[in-house]
């Protein structure tokens, strides 16, 4: 049932052409969506992990078959070049499914853990129980990856999912919905709600059993507050202002190429973009010259031989403009690109790759998330200063350290307050599903990918088992005659030089007293 009044037209940000039409999910349907989800959970959560993985495998194979088609939709909807759609949106998504197919059984199966000697005769386990309905709200910059990974992780763990993709890239939302449908997931297991912040807010004000949000710090705080009011557990994957530290002993050409790609890929609209470049002073001038030279060779456009695509969202263009105007007004030097006052953008959102020097931390471009094709470069004089500058941020998502000295790399990375540190490379850690992903400080709360990727969507349930044959336990009532024995037993046990024969005698005495007390009571 679709309300015809809530359709909106979709335009490609790279060409300005109309590329489709979307219908917003009417708010009155949200209650039904939740009902269906809770109902579907009853059956889905009872399937074995292997049975659930059959559906994930179908989804993976379907995505492999339709890879080019999906890349086309992503490219049209976001303005990113198709090469970036396939390399950074599709590949890590499919690899994420494969990771789950490989690891879900081990990750979600009952885990035996040891039982302290004081609880002799018992066994201990941890069970992973699906939570229920998971609400996944996702952004527009990697509209496939950032929606799909939490969706299929939650589903593999036995939950049902309601997904609210970004309204800025709705055709990717529609494409994901069709993929799940075609892969044959049972009705109600994955449902999509389309629309903007009103739909997102209405969904998060219901009662999901878990909320997984990826987006801006501003919205993350609104969502976190809504979740906190109802004590709904959540993961918040938010923005970044990632530093890149280049020491004078780094492979200079590699570092320059990485800065260029790390700062400009996806037009800089990456939560882990290189947003601040700190270069050790002896190589600063050479680094800057090479960076400018290489930036000038980049091609912008929409074809397969182009490097940099368009921006995705007009409001983001305004933020980039504001950051550049602020920086230039405070004395930054435009090394490449164009003064934003001269931009003539219209409905094709291409921004010139921009390099800035003479920057400092009073500028927005060095302190707030720019999320555009902008590389501010700043010199530093020593290791301590580089660490201080890198950590001088409200954000803490990712960072990179560039040096040929392994000890220095470890020393510096150990002191960076970020969710990930990459040595002599950029961005790649997000595509390694064996590692946790997430931020510190304003960059978010929680981790996914890795072992946590599935387990966050489960209640971790502690199970302790006793054979149930004894009448009583030593610590149960009545306490008569036990205190002195417990005192001696615990002192022996925790002394660090336990006499196990003595420990055994004390334990047996406690057992005897327990059964004597028990008999006297009867
Ligand atoms: P956004 O916060 O504006 O929107 C994200 C999603 O939230 C969208 O689906 C939107 O419709 C929805 N939304 C907006 N207001 C809402 C509300 N009040 N209640 C419920 N839902 C609401 O973010 P964006 O502009 O789409 O994405 C860009 C931001 O996302 C950047 O800050 C970027 O750094 C961040 N991001 C973070 C990660 C990460 O993994 N840490 C990854 C990608 C992007």
UniProtKB/TrEMBL annotation:
Pfam families: Aldedh. The keyword Magnesium does not apply. GO terms for molecular function: oxidoreductase activity, acting on the aldehyde or oxo group of donors, NAD or NADP as acceptor. PROSITE patterns: ALDEHYDE_DEHYDR_GLU (PS00687). One of its GO terms (biological process) is aldehyde metabolic process. Keywords: Oxidoreductase. Residues 7-462 form the Aldehyde dehydrogenase domain. InterPro entries: Ald_DH/histidinol_DH, Ald_DH_C, Ald_DH_CS_GLU, Ald_DH_N, Aldehyde_DH_dom, Aldehyde_DH_NAD(P). The active site is at residues 237, 271. The keyword Oxidoreductase applies. Gene3D superfamilies: Aldehyde Dehydrogenase, Chain A, domain 1, Aldehyde Dehydrogenase, Chain A, domain 2. SUPFAM superfamilies: ALDH-like. PANTHER family: ALDEHYDE DEHYDROGENASE-RELATED (PTHR11699). Belongs to the aldehyde dehydrogenase family. This is Aldehyde dehydrogenase. It comes from Peribacillus cavernae.
């Amino acid at each position: 049932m679709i309300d015809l009044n809530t359709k909106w037209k979709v335009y490609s940000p790279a060409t300005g052409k109309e590329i489709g039409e979307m219908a917003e999910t009417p708010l009155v349907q949200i209650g039904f969506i939740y009902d269906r989800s809770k109902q579907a959970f009853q059956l889905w959560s009872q399937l074995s992990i292997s049975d659930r993985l059959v559906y994930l495998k179908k989804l993976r194979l379907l995505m492999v078959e339709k890879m080019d088609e999906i890349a086309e939709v992503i490219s049209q909807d976001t303005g990113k070049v198709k090469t970036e759609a396939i390399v950074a949106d599709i590949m890590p998504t499919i690899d994420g499914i494969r990771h789950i197919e490989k690891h879900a059984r081990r990750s979600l199966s009952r885990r035996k853990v040891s039982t302290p000697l004081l609880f002799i005769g018992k066994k201990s386990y941890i069970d992973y129980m699906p939570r229920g309905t998971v609400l996944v709200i996702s952004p527009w910059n990697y509209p496939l990856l950032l929606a799909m990974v939490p969706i299929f992780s939650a589903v593999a763990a036995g939950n049902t999912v309601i997904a609210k993709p970004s309204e800025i890239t709705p055709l990717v939302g529609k494409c994901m919905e069709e993929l799940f449908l075609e892969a044959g997931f049972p009705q109600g297991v994955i449902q999509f709600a389309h629309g903007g912040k009103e739909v997102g807010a209405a969904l998060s004000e219901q009662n999901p059993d878990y909320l997984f949000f990826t987006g801006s710090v501003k919205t993350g705080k609104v969502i976190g507050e809504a979740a906190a009011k109802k004590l709904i557990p959540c993961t918040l994957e938010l923005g970044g202002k990632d530093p890149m530290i280049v020491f004078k002993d780094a492979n200079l050409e590699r570092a320059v190429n990485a800065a260029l790609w790390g700062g400009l890929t996806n037009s800089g609209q990456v939560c882990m973009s290189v947003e601040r470049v700190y270069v050790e002073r002896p190589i600063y001038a050479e680094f800057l010259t090479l960076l400018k030279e290489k930036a000038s060779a980049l091609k912008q456009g929409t074809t397969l031989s182009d490097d940099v695509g368009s921006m995705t969202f007009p409001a983001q263009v305004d933020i980039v403009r504001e950051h550049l105007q602020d920086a230039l007004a405070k004395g930054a030097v435009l090394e490449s690109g164009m003064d934003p006052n001269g931009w003539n953008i219209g409905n094709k959102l291409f921004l010139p790759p921009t390099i800035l020097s003479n920057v400092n931390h009073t500028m927005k471009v060095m302190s707030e998330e720019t999320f555009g094709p902008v590389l501010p470069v700043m010199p530093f004089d020593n290791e301590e200063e580089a660490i201080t500058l890198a950590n001088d941020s409200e954000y803490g998502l990712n960072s990179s350290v560039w040096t040929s000295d392994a000890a220095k790399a470890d020393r510096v990375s150990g002191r960076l307050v970020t969710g990930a540190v990459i040595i002599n490379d950029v961005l790649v850690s997000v595509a390694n599903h064996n590692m946790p992903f997430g931020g510190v400080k304003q960059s978010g709360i929680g981790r996914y990918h890795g072992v946590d990727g599935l387990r966050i969507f489960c209640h971790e349930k502690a199970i302790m088992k006793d054979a149930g044959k004894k009448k009583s336990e030593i610590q149960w009532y009545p306490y008569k005659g036990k205190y002195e024995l417990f005192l001696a037993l615990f002192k022996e046990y925790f002394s660090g030089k336990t006499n196990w024969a003595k420990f055994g005698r004390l334990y047996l005495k406690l057992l005897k007293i327990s059964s004597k007390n028990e008999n006297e009571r009867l």
